[in-house]
Write a structure and sequence with these properties.
It contains two helices and three strands. The chain has a three-stranded antiparallel sheet. The chain has about 60 residues and is an alpha+beta fold. The chain is elongated, with a radius of gyration of 15 Å.
Length: about 60
């Protein structure tokens, strides 16, 4: 695969709520890249899971 081959990159657009291929909007409102359309569709869910894990990580507990 060439360095400029983005055919397997998918993004979640937080502004529109749409999943887009690499060729979609070039905006700071996108999360990704993800390896599939399905992964990109779960972007917000995945971010929430990671935030929860970090919030409960004793190494990062600021209390």
């Amino acid at each position: 695969m060439a360095d400029d081959d983005h055919s397997n990159e998918w993004y979640y657009n937080t502004k529109t709520g749409e999943v887009e291929p690499y060729q979609g909007a070039k905006s700071g409102d996108r999360l990704g890249p993800y390896g599939s359309r399905e992964e990109a569709a779960r972007a917000l869910e995945k971010a929430e899971e990671r935030n929860e894990a970090w919030d409960n990580d004793p190494k990062w507990n600021d209390d």
